[in-house]
Amino acid sequence: LSHGDGGALTRKLIEEIFYKKFYNDILIKDQDAALLPACDRPIAMTTDSFIVKPIFFPGGDIGKLAVCGTVNDLAVSGAEAKFITTAFIIEEGFKMEDLAQIVDSMWQTARECGLTIVSGDTKVVEKGSIDGIFINTTGIGVLPAGVNLGFQQIKPGDKIIISGNIGEHGVAVMASREGFSINLSSDCAPLNRITQSILKNSQGVKFMRDPTRGGVASTLKEIAISSHNVDFCINEENLPISQEVNTVCQLLGYDPLYLANEGKILAFVAPEECEKIISLMKELPYGENTCCIGEVQEGKGDVLLKTIIGGTRKLNLLSGISLPRIC
Amino acid sequence: MGTVDRRMELKVEGVVQGVGFRPFIYRLAKTYHLNGTVRNDGAGVIIDIEGKKENTNHFLNNILTEAPALANISNIQHKELKPLGYSDFVIVKSRGQTEGKVMVPPDIATCSECKADLVNPTDHHYRYPFTNCTNCGPRFTIVQELPYDRNKTSMQTFIMCEACEKEYNDQLDRRFHAQPVACPNCGPMVQIIDRKGKKRKGDWLNLCQKLLLEGKILAIKSLGGFHLACDAKNKRAIRRLRRLKNRPHKPLAIMCRDVDIVREYCHVSEYQLDLLKSPAAPIVVLERRHDCDLPRELSPGQNSLGVMLPYTPLHILIMESGPSVLVMTSGNNSNMPICITNQDAFRQLGQIADYFVVHDRPIENRCDDSVVTTISERPFFYRRSRGYVPNSIPVPVDQNTNISIVGVGGDLKNTFCLLKGGLAYLSPHIGDLNTIEGEGAYLESLARFKSLIHIEPEVVVVDLHPSYQSSALVENSKALHKVAVQHHHAHMASCMAENAINEPVIGAILDGTGYGLDGNLWGFEILQGDYVNCARKVHLDYVPLHGGDSSVRNPWKVAVSYLLKYGGKDGEELVTKLFQGKEQPVEIIKKLIKTNQNITLASSCGRLFDAVSAILGICQTASYEGQAAIELGELVPWLASDTEVESFARSTSPYPFLIKNGVIDPELMIKGFIKDIKRGAQNKIGKKFHDTVVAMVVDSVQLVGEETNLRKVVLSGGCWQNRYLLMLTKKMLRDRGFEVYYHKLVPTNDGGLSLGQVMVGYWRCKNVLGCSGTSNAYQ
Ligand SMILES: [Fe+3]
Ligand SMILES: [Mg+2]
Ligand SMILES: [Zn+2]
Ligand SMILES: [Zn+2]
């Protein structure tokens, strides 16, 4: 790829790579702005920029990540994802085949989610000014009638559910970046079908978040801080962690609770609906390993981990580098 | 009655309550025909006395010379008054609130007279597991408030029977005003309960002994917390206890029936016997005899045993005809505070203990067993707790400037320390703060100490480490000032303080890992400074450590760092050879070091020991703190006497190393190991390595000494627990004309850290701040 100037080269890039894949009625009108159908429900909108090293990793690539990330942000807010826009910033010299592959996986993921790609932008920048490729996506969704999620609704007694094994994205990306082989893929996946299913079939969902950067622990802590007078009590015993993640974590001293996930939902649900919601989630792809990991108690904004050996540890936000405390 | 020509009021401060002080005064007054009163009050003991002038002088002199062994008088104020014409001498009721000038004594092991009562069928304390008197029994562990009176202890709910009341009120009785006095008719009782919560009927003592002999694990409610006990000769029981307690290697303390049993298994000097039998009755770490046939499982990889003698009537009775040696390890899950309530024990130890030996006297203050070894006929503390806490330690401060300070300690082996008026009060061992149970124990203990000492600290002193839990716990404290002290500066100050030094010194710090002023991890440095200032003059070269605490738990990772940094091609080959089966993780670590990910730089003696331990195949993964270093320390002889030290000091054989621009470069030493390993001379490396560390310290101190003209050297930090290092360094530095000081009153490990913190806090606030503002005064 060479430096873009808004001229013919870029035009060619857009037609050959992007339009070929992303073809749809709205995009192809090629106007300065996409025109979307009007809607009488609240609109949900989110934006995120994606940087990942390496760009291709076991279980996905930056393209899939960019679509999933935005879809999942819409999904956990309760909205039905409808449209997405994308913006690429590409380093001069980036391989055309790689770009084509990224675009392909974006398209496939968007199709899987039932999303329409409605607008896009591309900039090619001078070599060295960025590292490979950055992608920004913005998603638009519609909030279905009767859905009203919020951390204010979390009450003591509520159950905390996770939609599957934790820490897999973090470990898989780290492993492939450092070039060692383990039998593990990133969990990168769209979760909108799961969230729509449980919202449609149960009134018991109070709040949802996707525990991406900072992992399950940091996400829980953020929610605990915003919520009023509650603690989240997590049982270490119940945490779904694969053998591979466990081994790597033990050897290298990582805590799976702080490793990134890209295809997981943390859901706070009413206790009486917990079983039902778990079985709904288990039926769908990416939810097979769903389980309850803890519950909400009265408290003062702490996340407490009941450890296997019987102690209770406070979980805090992820903080930079881990300095040994053992003297 | 003679003439009354003098009346005076004496105010006696210090440890004077709960040690038989008032009966002593009563007897003394009677001896010299003096009349008046004596009473406890918040400020100490108040004596109002009148009689013949000559007799009052005798009386006054005798207070100091004849005071009960357990009393510790810190001050006597005296005032002359007009005689009143008292007709008798009486002990009157306590009055007033505590002002923090009096302290409850530590718990005291059962005295010989109470032991005699236990086996005397005519005594009404015969075989009673809670008997005690003014000379012995629980003190600190049962006190809620001061002054020390029965209604402010956990004995308040037990109403004395007639017989006990008579002893309690008889001024000449050994139990006169012994607050925890009790007997089978009125006092606490023992019960045995099984795992399901069912009470077992019948004689508890027979059953208890029978269960232990059968190899069962018992949770026993002792003085300052629960113990987990089993027959120390029963391998299977020990293995089972280790498995259930999730404690594969860490040594287990044992309790021996009597000193003859101790002699059977350990080398023990007269001094060590005295220490075992002392009122504090600590666990004493002793060298195991060659013919000791106790299971190796008690202290795997170690040639020592932690031994104590029964220190309560309950223990004495159980050991009378049960097993002659019991494992008596603290009743907790790893990293958790020791259980003190029955409920807590059922919950925490329910999966470990088969039966629970409990009683109904609540433990007010958690207090683990103390652990000591001996260096030159003095106790050397690994853990200072039961039997020593809450005794105060006098420290050098300006008598005219009183600042109330709390030092919060470190995160592991935690103790905190309160400073008030020239006396430092260290808390009992609190341990690991990484759980909320640990946090809870800390906060409870701190609140209790503040109220006992009557102090609301104006200054809070924390470690410089950005993620210590101990600092987070006091984030919202009401104190006016917060001072952050570098970890090893605090270690140095701790050693200075207990040795009453208040002048610039050289500090030789060998420690695990402490957060340094440059953001790297320190732990092997020669410091120069005093309480206020501190500069690092020489330090061990940095190596990269990967993955925070996991590098500390996995000595093999540190070995990889050392071999790669200093070993060249041979080092790389050795890594491949040594860590077979770890090829992939070794590759990962190598890469992460190269790309500098999740790496901290460490200059630490503890990590150097870890690396060497892993290279020698002694310990690659540690299941308890310090395991690799401790097991490596077993390769050198146990230097018990000064003559042995003398001969070893003459024949040290260090590897070569360089000191350049204030950095100790261990490259030549690491290359030396590799050569020795290639030659198959592994067995020599252990001693040569120890000798090298000694030489590194001695040479560095020499350099700093020449530069600064300082002659006083303090040794502090956890690695000085290594007897060989301490004894040899001490000897060689003295030979070079240095005055050497090490710890004798508080642990050299992080258990003594808080003492140093309060001292730095005090002098910084006094000198630097004039007591205003916040200080991070390292420039
Ligand atoms: Fe330390
Ligand atoms: Mg977002
Ligand atoms: Zn006694
Ligand atoms: Zn009685």
TrEMBL record, chain B:
| Residues of the active site | 22, 40
User: Could you tell me what reaction this enzyme catalyses?
Assistant: C-terminal L-cysteinyl-[HypE protein] + carbamoyl phosphate + ATP + H2O = C-terminal S-carboxamide-L-cysteinyl-[HypE protein] + AMP + phosphate + diphosphate + H(+); an acyl phosphate + H2O = a carboxylate + phosphate + H(+)
- Which GO terms fall under biological process for this protein? protein maturation
Acylphosphatase-like domain span: 7-93
Pathway assigned in UniProt: Protein modification; [NiFe] hydrogenase maturation
Entry keyword Cell cycle: no
Q: Where is the YrdC-like domain?
A: 202-387
List the GO molecular function terms.
acylphosphatase activity; carboxyl- or carbamoyltransferase activity; double-stranded RNA binding; ligase activity; zinc ion binding
- Keywords assigned by UniProt? Hydrolase, Ligase, Metal-binding, Transferase, Zinc, Zinc-finger
Q: Which EC number(s) does UniProt give?
A: 6.2.-.-
The cross-references to PANTHER family, in alphabetical order and at most eight, read: CARBAMOYLTRANSFERASE, CARBAMOYLTRANSFERASE HYPF
Provide the family line. Answer: Belongs to the acylphosphatase family.
Q: What is this protein called?
A: Carbamoyltransferase
Q: What species does this protein belong to?
A: Desulforamulus aeronauticus DSM 10349
